[in-house]
Amino acid sequence: xxxxxxxxxxxxxxxxxxxxxxxxxxxxxxxxxxxxxxxxxxxxxxxxxxxxxxxxxxxxxxxxxxxxxxxxxxxxxxxxxxxxxxxxxxxxxxxxxxxxxxxxxxxxxxxxxxxxxxxxxxxxxxxxxxxxxxxxxxxxxxxxxxxxxxxxxxxxxxxxxxxxxxxxxxxxxxxxxxxxxxxxxxxxxxxxxxxxxxxxxxxxxxxxxxxxxxxxxxxxxxxxxxxxxxxxxxxxxxxxxxxxxxxxxxxxxxxxxxxxxxxxxxxxxxxxxxxxxxxxxxxxxxxxxxxxxxxxxxxxxxxxxxxxxxxxxxxxxxxxxxxxxxxxxxxxxxxxxx
Length: 338
Prior knowledge:
By secondary structure, the chain is of the alpha+beta class. The chain is built from nine helices and 14 strands. It folds into three domains: 14-74, Orthogonal Bundle (Arc Repressor Mutant, subunit A), CATH 1.10.10; 88-287, Bira Bifunctional Protein, Domain 2 (BirA Bifunctional Protein, domain 2, 2-Layer Sandwich); 294-337, SH3 type barrels (Roll), CATH 2.30.30. Strands 3-4-5-9-8-7-6 form a seven-stranded mixed β-sheet, sandwiched between helices. The chain has a five-stranded antiparallel β-sheet with strand order 13-12-11-10-14, with no helix packed on it. Helix 5 (106-115) links the parallel strand 3 and strand 4 (123-126).
């Protein structure tokens, strides 16, 4: 694999393992016989035994009892595609999932897959990144085994001018996933940050390739601080940052969170393609923590602009009402509540 990718850890037989793990992870699952499993996966009992042995090599712990079968005891704490896909029902996302123990950037890998003809909905995951990217060329700290580093390849039938709208689709999906998995109350800060108690817990970086009149690919890059502890955050952070673990006091099941996020994103993307931007924008506005409030906007070049955030336009620009009542469109910058 090109694009700075490291060792893949998803070398299992995708569909068979997805079916196996879906059976083991069902709410009422106990011991399952080789006969039951072979019928569910439509393969031989010998194949079932081989797959379970390989799952064991990848950290899955099974109890086996003669005449009773197998029982899944422990799922390893890494983002294995088969574990994520078990029980996940999505229309467009996750048909192909690849996970790396380490890569330079999941966005770079997804972009390369897009150039090579990768299918829409391909998901790239990494346990760690050596070149994690944030907005405006900033570094995204990516320690191993703690968080979610995820990129999704899309091929939406939209003009390039509409591509920024997908940032708002992914922001709403992250908010939904955090609420469902933790009970916390995140807010969105324009354009692409997710905050809890004023500290950043997630960021988005969407990148597009396009021809003159149509989008070729959009890569949705999503980073969520799930289980980072305070000592793992870089000392040079420009803004306060936190993790879902630090805010809730409870470790997050990374596999379950990833499955929830992909399910939410699949639903929102489907709605976006069917009904356009307005419905997504309305949900984004409802979750945004700066609309109707006095803010300062800085792009690092011009003097900070002050005004009341009134909404976003069709291209995702922030509508800033200045002191004279005029509306100014802000296309990039950092926002702070005044």
